[in-house]
Each structure stands twice: as C-alpha cells, then as structure tokens.
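Hi V.,

Quick status before I head out on leave. The structure for the redesign project is tokenized and pasted below; the design run finished overnight.
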C-alpha cells in the first residue's frame, strides 16, 4: 500500500512482495486469503555487516588518495594505478583486520565482564560453595559451549553487550546487544520451523539465555517476553522427551530450567507444564540428592493448586463449592507439611546455623526518623545455595497460606450460603496463627543479603519471585514493613543491575499473577486503590467478573 513501510508489513504480504494495509488484527490481504496475519505492523531489525562498511569506507579513502597523487606528480598512468591500488588495498585490509581484532577483543572482554558481574564471588570464596546452584551451573555450561553454536553465541553476546552498555553508558553497545538479540530470535525461529535441531542442546540453551536477557536487561514488556521464552523452553523439553537428558549439558539445562518453569507456572496458573511430574523425564536418585531438585519436586503441584483456587470462584453450586474447597484445603496442607519437613532437612544439613541477623547497611544509609527505616538488621546466611533454598521455602509457605486464606475469605464474602467455616474448617493450629507474619518479615529482612554488591546479578535474580509474593501480602494487610521495598529498589538501581524494570512489569500483573485480590469491590482493595499507595499496583489486576 502507498505510504506503508515494507518493513512493517505482515509475514504473508512480505513473502508475496505485496503491500500490506496494516489493518489490525488481520490485514485485508490475509482476510481475503484466509491466512494467519503474523507480525502485522511490527518493524524489522536491520543488520549491518560492519566488515563491509569498513572495506567500503577505506576503499573510498583509497580512491581519493589516488586522485590526489596523480595530480601531484606525473609518472605513467599504468604505474600510478598499480602502486596506489596495491597500497590502498593493503591499507584497507590492514585496517579491517585491526577493526575486527579490536571488536573481537571487545566482545571477549564483554563476556568476561558479564560472567564476573553475574557471579563475582564464584571462584572459591565462602559464600558460593563448590556445589553451586542450578541457575549458575547451566549458565556457566552455556558460556563454555557458546563458541560451537552461532545462535547460542548471539544470545551470550546480547547479554554481554547489554551489560557493557549498562556499565559504560555506551549506546552503540546497547544497539549491538539488540542486534545480537534479534539475530538470536531469528535463528531460534528458523530452527524450530525447520525442526532439524529440536534435539540440539544448544537450541534449548539459547532460549533459556533469551529469558535471562529479559530479566537482567530486557526489551519492551519484559514479563511477557520472559514468559514466552520460559514457555518456549518448556515446550522444547516436552518435544525432545528423554532425548534432552542423553548428555550432561542437556541434563544441566533441564535442572536449571525447573525453578523458572515453576515460577512461570505459578504466575500463569499452569499455562506451561505444571512441573516435574508432567515431563517425560523423571529425576534420577542421583538428581534427588540435590536439594534444589528436591524442593522443585515438592513445589511442582503449586501451579495446579493456584488454578484450583481460582476455579472455586467460578462455581455456583454450594455442594460443588464445598467439595472443591475440601480438595484445595487438603492439597494446601499436604504441601505445607512437606515444606516444613524440608525446612527441617535444611536445618540438619548444616552443622552450624543456617542464618542469623547482622546490622543493616541499608538502614544506616537512611535518616533516623525515616519511615522507610523499619529494620535495623538483616538476615544473612551460611552460604548462597542454602540462602536460595531457605528463601524459596519461606516464600512458598507464605504463598500456600495466603492462597488458602484468600479463598476462604472470598467464600465468606460472596458465597455465604456455603457456610464454609462450619462445613470445611480451615484447620489452622493455634501455633500457626502468626506464622504468615513471621514468614513475610523473614523474607523481607533477607532481601538485603541478595542485593549486596558481592552477590552480583545471580543474587538479585533470586528476589523476583519472593518479592512478588511478600509485596502482595504486606500491601494487602497494610503493614509498615512494606516501606522497605523502595529501599531495595534504590539499591538495585545503585548497583545498575536492571532487574527493577522486570519486577515493575511483574507487579503490574499483565502476564504473571502471584497473589490474587479478593475482588475489585472488596473494601480493603478499594481503600488501597484510592489511597494512591505505590504498592497498590500489586493488587490492581482486574478480577474475574462476579456471577
């Protein structure tokens, strides 16, 4: 169509070299032909071959030099042409080699700088024990394999150059990062369409790295893009079946993907696979000795539990409401009991204390009378892997307690005829009444440990899931401890990590929904929304219309 950039036409029109009218959601040509309209109005990235640019620039420079030389002296035309052409050719070749070597050195340094920023204390220092954690194991393995696969190398370079841009403020590095990202996405798309690389471990690693890019650096709508990559990795694992675990690299990738898949499953109520139990691969006895795998196996039913809690709100029949609530209560109590036993296992796994409190450096940076100075100490841990396990255990216990309580509260408000407290008592022991508050405070006081400079990007990455849960809880109950979150956000910005943008997108609830509000007309929700509190966005997700 006249005036419509061809770069924004849909895939079908571009293949046919026809103009696209960009009508949303389906253009006129696709509507007429009955085709699926893909990437309508989406601009394409333009990739520039820097080596050709350099060669063309130096060639032009050589031509100008030739012209000036011929005017300055009068040797024979043949000799002038021969000498100047050979000279400019050698100069162009040399400059091109220098440029390529400089760029190669820059890219190599960028990768090293990214890994140093990701796990700055990974080399034998006490906080990072030798067994490490799955999130750093798979990434380290992917970095080692990057040289053998162009797509994987592009994903690594996207992360590295984006980090370099953040540190140096170099806009060209950011452009390079987005170019590598775009090239990587195209490679993945071609590989999936062709279907000949589904069993290649490098393809799975590439998709997982794209998800990591969204957490730490990101494009637009980071939570949605992150979810798409996590879901894509899960589908690849399903398609590959047991083949995914024929190699050590594939096995490390699978184990490293479990936690992210679980978080995505919880936030989307099982939009991806629900967990370990629904994959063709079952953890071996050797795998189950790993505490990370044990915990993910315990939590694998959480997405379906969250889905069931949402489903109860759509049931009208009283008998069915009671039946579904009984099932939810049973499943919640089962997983909470197992989590408490796992917590005891953690305690026994260490000869010394797992965690203790130390003076908070973040609190010291605040004015004595600041409303944000709600803590004077923070929780520190014996080592980083234990910290991640304990952090996730506390968060999951809080999520299960909150889910069960919110479901009962909703039924009290909107299904009073079910008389749910008399028919199906929630069965919370007296000694557990203050457990949720204790869990929430422990989670918040632990966050400073993960955002210390020496913890790097891998530390900051651990707080996304817990912060989403505890932020909703403390905001719902309007507790003073919620004022600690701006302090954590400022620390993230001081460290120039970039994860705060991902957290903001997550809190908006467009893609992930951790703790669901009671309803838009529920009094506490209305009060919070009208108060203008910055944390009200956690509960600002539109609930399902009441029936």
């Amino acid at each position: 169509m006249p005036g419509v950039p061809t770069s924004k036409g849909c895939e079908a029109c571009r293949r046919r070299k026809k103009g696209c009218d960009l009508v949303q959601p389906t253009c006129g040509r696709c509507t007429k032909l009955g085709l699926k309209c893909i990437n309508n109005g989406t601009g394409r990235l333009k990739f520039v071959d820097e080596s050709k640019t350099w060669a063309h620039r130096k060639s032009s420079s050589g031509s100008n030099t030739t012209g000036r030389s011929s005017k300055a002296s009068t040797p024979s035309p043949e000799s002038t042409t021969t000498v100047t052409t050979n000279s400019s050719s050698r100069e162009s070749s040399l400059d091109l080699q220098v440029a390529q070597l400089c760029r190669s050195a820059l890219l190599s340094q960028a990768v090293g700088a990214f890994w140093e920023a990701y796990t700055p204390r990974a080399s034998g220092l006490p906080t990072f024990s030798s067994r490490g954690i799955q999130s750093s194991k798979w990434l380290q393995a992917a970095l080692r394999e990057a040289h053998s696969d162009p797509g994987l190398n592009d994903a690594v370079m996207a992360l590295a150059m984006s980090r370099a841009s953040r540190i140096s403020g170099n806009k060209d590095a950011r452009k390079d990062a987005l170019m590598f990202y775009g090239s990587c996405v195209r490679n993945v798309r071609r590989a999936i369409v062709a279907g000949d690389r589904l069993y290649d471990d490098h393809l799975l690693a590439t998709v997982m790295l794209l998800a990591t890019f969204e957490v730490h650096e990101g494009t637009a709508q980071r939570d949605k893009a992150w979810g798409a990559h996590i879901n894509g990795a899960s589908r690849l694992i399903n398609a590959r079946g047991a083949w995914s675990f024929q190699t050590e690299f594939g096995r490390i990738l699978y184990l490293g993907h479990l936690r992210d898949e679980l978080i995505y499953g919880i936030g989307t109520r099982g939009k991806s696979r629900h967990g370990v139990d629904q994959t063709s691969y079952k953890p071996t006895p050797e795998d189950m000795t790993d505490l990370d795998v044990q915990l993910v196996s315990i939590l694998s039913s959480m997405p379906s539990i969250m889905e069931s809690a949402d489903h109860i709100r759509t049931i009208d029949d009283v008998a069915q409401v009671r039946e579904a609530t009984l099932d939810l209560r049973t499943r919640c109590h089962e997983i909470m009991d197992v989590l408490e036993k796992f917590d005891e296992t953690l305690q026994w796994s260490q000869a010394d204390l797992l965690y203790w409190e130390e003076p908070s450096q973040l609190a010291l940076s605040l004015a004595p009378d600041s409303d944000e100075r709600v803590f004077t100490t923070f929780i520190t841990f014996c080592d980083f892997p234990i910290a991640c396990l304990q952090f996730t255990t506390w968060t999951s216990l809080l999520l299960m307690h909150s889910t069960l309580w919110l479901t009962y509260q909703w039924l009290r408000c909107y299904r009073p005829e079910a008389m749910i407290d008399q028919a199906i008592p929630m069965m919370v022991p007296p000694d557990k009444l203050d457990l949720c508050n204790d869990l929430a405070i422990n989670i918040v006081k632990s966050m400073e440990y993960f955002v210390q400079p020496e913890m790097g990007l891998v530390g900051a990455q651990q707080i996304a899931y817990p912060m989403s849960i505890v932020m909703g809880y403390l905001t719902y109950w309007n507790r003073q401890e919620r004022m600690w979150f701006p302090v954590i956000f400022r620390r993230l910005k001081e460290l120039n990590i970039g994860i705060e943008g991902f957290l903001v997108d997550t809190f908006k609830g467009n893609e992930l929904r951790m703790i669901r509000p009671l309803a838009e007309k529920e009094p506490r929700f209305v009060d919070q929304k009208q108060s203008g509190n910055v944390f009200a966005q956690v509960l600002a997700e539109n609930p399902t219309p009441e029936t």
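Above is the designed sequence. The chain has a mean pLDDT of 74.

G. will cover questions while I'm gone.

Best,
W.
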